[in-house]
Amino acid sequence: MRYLKVDISIDEQSHQYQNLSAPKGHSGIDTIYHIQELVLQRKDLRPIVMIIKKIFDETFLSMPYFGGISSYSLVLMVSAYLKRFDQDKQESLSRNLSGFFHFYGVGFKPHLFYLNGDKIEFCEDPSQRPFQDPFIVLDPLDNSNNISHSTFRIKDIQRALV
Fold first, then answer.
1. What is the DSSP string of 29-96?
2. Terminal C-alpha separation, the chain
3. pLDDT tens across 118-142, in order?
C-alpha cells in the first residue's frame, strides 16, 4: 500500500471576497466566508438553522433536488428574519425560533415577498419581481442568481413550520 502526501490547505487571504457585488461566478469559498460573517453577527443564527434543518431532513425539505430548500437559502432566511424582527438582539433563542416559525409558516406569502440576500422585500406586482420562480432568494454575492430557483415545495416548507 502506498501513501500519498497531499496538501489541501487554502490560502484564505487570496480567496476572500473584496466586494459583495462581486462579478458572476463567485466561488463556494466566498459563500462560506459570507455565512461565517453572518454567524459572527448573530450567535443565534447557527442553532436556529440547525434545528430547522433537522426538521426538514425528515421530509426531504432540505434537499433542493426534491423541491426543498438549500442550506444557504435557509441561512439567509433566518438572517433576514433576525435582522427584521430582532434588530436589537434582545430576544431569546426560543423566542426567535418560534417567531421564525410563525413568520415563514403563516405570515410570509411567497407571491408577495422575496429575499434580497438577507433582506425581506415586499413586491405586490408580479411583473416587478426579479424572477418568476415560486420562491426567490437572491444571492447577496450575485444578485442575478436566485439560489432558490429549484424550491418548488414552498407550501410544504411552510406547513412544516406551522
1. HHHHHHHHHHHHH-TTHHHHHHHHHHHHHTTTTT-GGGT---HHHHHHHHHHHHHHH-TTS-S-HHHH
2. 54
3. 999 999 898 899 999 999 999 999 9
Backbone angles phi, psi at 18, to 5 degrees: -95, -25
- The position carrying cell 462560506 is 32
The grid cell for 92 is 431569546
Residue whose C-alpha cell reads 490560502 in the numeric block? 11
Q: How far apart are CA 136 and CA 134, in angstroms?
A: 7
Rounded Cα distance between 98 and 125, Å, is 30
Residue 83 exposure: Cα atoms within 13 Å on the Cβ side: 16
- Sort residue 25 into left (φ over 0), alpha (ψ -120 to 50) or beta: left
